[in-house]
What we know:
Blueprint: E1 9-20, E2 23-35, E3 40-44, H1 51-58, E4 66-71, E5 74-75, H2 81-91, E6 92-96, H3 107-117, H4 122-135, H5 151-162, E7 169-173, H6 181-196, E8 200-204, E9 216-221, E10 224-230
Parallel strand pairs: 3-8, 3-9, 6-7, 7-8
Antiparallel strand pairs: 1-2, 1-4, 4-5, 9-10
Helix pairs in contact: 3-4, 3-5, 4-5, 5-6
Amino acid sequence: MAPETPDVIATQDLWKIYQMGKLEYAALQGVNLKAKMGEFISIVGPSGSGKSTLLNMIGALDRPSRGHVWIDGVDISSLSDNRLAMLRNRKIGFIFQTFNLLAYMSSSDNVEVPMVANGLAAPDRQARAYELLSMVGLKGFETNRPNMLSGGQQQRVAIARALANQPSILLADEPTGNLDSKSAAEVIEILRKLNSDGATIIMVTHNMELTKFSHRIWYILDGKVEKEVVRSA
């Protein structure tokens, strides 16, 4: 049964087991977590603890071995691949440590990619891409390709792309991991602004300094929730 009062995100007895030959490796072991709408949540823990696996489960990029993940009260564990893709495209934006921009495309074209699947007309896609790039401080860089941008600028393009379809949830996997301190601070400030505007943000980070901006911190160790710290907004 789904939770009586669904949070924007909830997991129940969530397991992810990888098969390696005859051996099994449990990356997640019975994880139970909830996130409320509009929260900024940090996931922390040592390398290999299951942080990114948990983010992938929440973002419907991978399916659980057992257990459940709910997004806005919908058990995504039971959705077909097509419905899962639709939910991802409409509700969730992804920001990756390595940016994942298409090298042969301009900044604007990169931002437009998620809008193509939603069937938005080309003039509308371009107008929104320009608007988003301006919002993240890249007005005038619309035609630049990734190799013409700094790391911080590339991550801003990635954030703009994540916002293309106006998702209510943003998932960020080490979004400042490849950035210098100045660029990292700028990226976090953008995320804080998006959160203040209502977006639910879940961020994997190894930088404990960044967790001071969180409403909630999930500490993951060996695939389990070691502890959860809730802070007042």
